[in-house]
Amino acid sequence: MCIYFAMATDPPPSSASAKTGFLKTCFNGVNALSGIGLLSIPYALSQGGWLSLAVFLTIAVICYYTGLLLQRCIDASPLVSTYPDIGALAFGRRGRLAVALFMYLELFLVAVDFLILEGDNLEKLFPAASGVQVGALHVGGRQAFALAAALVVLPTTWFSSLSVLAYVAAAGALASVVLVAAVLWVAVFDGVGFHERGRLVHWAGMPSAMSLYSFCFSGHAVFPMIYTGMKDRKKFPMMLFICFTLSTLSYALMGIIGYLMYGDALQSQVTLNLPSGKVSSKVAIYTTLVNPLTKYALVVAPIAEAVEDELGLRVAAAKGRPLLLRVAVRTALVAATATVALAVPFFGDVVSLTGALLSCSATMLLPCLCYLSVRAKMIVRPSEKMYRLETAVCTAIIVVGATIVGLGTYSSVKQIVRKL
């Protein structure tokens, strides 16, 4: 039996004091949504053109709505507390397995993206680094930097409390603000300017753009954990609205700034376009390095908790038993993501594939499918008019999501295979 697919239906006992307040929950929510997508959003805009901003806003609204659908599914049963639990409530054991597969694979690849990002930007800061020699094995500069990042982020994964992670998340939110400000400084004061006009629309690049936009709002895998960890769950819709609003504004601002700066010459990460030697460029890159380090632990937490639940480690921890095995599980998880990051170091393509195949499935397809199934089992159902409206909206979202999954996955896999 694969331990990644088994989740306990009853969370370990916790006191009310262990729950997270509204402000800290907002920090965790923004941290889950506003991440490395800030770096790829200008590239996404260059792939789809200015009209793709309409697609971007549509995806933001869809993902906010499907986040609320997850809340409704959790509220439908006291036994539901995780995303795989939602799948089980909707479709039984097969539903649990399907949701777990998409959820954990998405989170795993996002963690891989973080390490690739660290290697790329550290190599830009220190281009003369030749790597390290480990016995008979030579590890190149980019790969060595990715390994170093994995070692730095490792201790943050040992925390399991969302309240503790909120302090790390606050640093991540601040880092996102500094990153946007630093890139804007490069444009206004360091001579780059806003001279590019870009294209109105680029149909050939639209699949990649849609995939990257979907990746930007891929926080659904951790939303159930954030929701069940709140002191006041009634405030979840407001928290979600605040997080999506702030994230959408920051993404849109960064995308427009970057596209006006570099146009179609944009690389997969806007920091790779910034002029070397400028203080503002270094600030942007250093901030980029901090950002994934503040988000990595939150992203891998659901995977680690799934393994720990299967092994009975979280129940043991609640009884005051040693935590060494939990540390070992999380260390092994970090090692696995580092291994994949070294094997497939194509940031833009990996992010696009994650967004198309996994993020889009977890944020659009699965919430709608699960909610429609769960709703049919509810004793108290919406009014007939609301029932039909919800069905129509969910059906439309499923069609949009399936289109992005098909076109985006094909485009991403094609690019990765060509580069391998």
Please render the helix and strand layout as text.
Layout: H1 22-33, H2 37-48, H3 52-75, H4 83-125, E1 132-134, E2 137-139, H5 141-153, H6 162-189, H7 206-216, H8 223-228, H9 236-262, H10 279-311, H11 313-318, H12 324-343, H13 347-377, H14 384-419
Antiparallel strand pairs: 1-2
Describe it.
This protein is an all-alpha fold. The chain has one domain: Amino acid/polyamine transporter I, CATH 1.20.1740. Helices cover about 70% and strands about 0% of the residues. A hairpin with a 2-residue loop joins strand 1 and strand 2. Mean pLDDT is about 80; it is low at about 1-15.
Number of separate helices: 14
What is the total domain count? 1
Q: Outline the biggest β-sheet.
A: 2 strands, antiparallel
**Tally of extended strands?**
2
Distance between the termini: 32 Å
Q: What is the mean predicted local confidence, pLDDT?
A: 82
Radius of gyration: 21 Å
Domain Amino acid transporter transmembrane: 19-410
Subcellular location: Membrane
Membrane topology: Multi-pass membrane protein
Keywords: Amino-acid transport, Membrane, Transmembrane, Transmembrane helix, Transport
